[in-house]
């Protein structure tokens, strides 16, 4: 079941509504890192270099908009919360692909850096520079979310599997 985002975005244009929910800079970067498996406040903070107050504001709005689920976990005897992608949050993946492809084509990395790659796990080959790919360039098979790995060589040579959406019921 797909969670229905409850952002304030309304109006006839779906692009306008989407930008109203996910178009803010930090929101997209939080979604990128959540897609790569980040779930905890401290991890988002150190990965993004974002101020505490801005991060907690964005996370709260993203939970309200149905992009993230706030899920309790215990650490010692303390109950804490982590932030997991909902179906709606995980559904941003094609947008991230499109941003990566656009960024490769129309912006520059500055210092020379190998590009981000998307790797198709079953065949082990890279498929495009992060662009939207329904099927693998190498083997022609459909690329499912759990078969997709990202390599971001400026961070680590290790391929990163994508986070799966948290099973979340719409309210
Ligand atoms: Zn393949």
UniProtKB/TrEMBL annotation:
Pfam family, one: HxlR
One MF term in the entry's GO annotations: DNA binding
InterPro entries noted in UniProt: HTH_HxlR (IPR002577), WH-like_DNA-bd_sf (IPR036388), WH_DNA-bd_sf (IPR036390)
Keyword Cell membrane applies: no
Location of the HTH hxlR-type domain: 13-111
Keywords tagged on the record: DNA-binding, Transcription, Transcription regulation
The protein's name: HxlR family transcriptional regulator
Organism: Planotetraspora thailandica
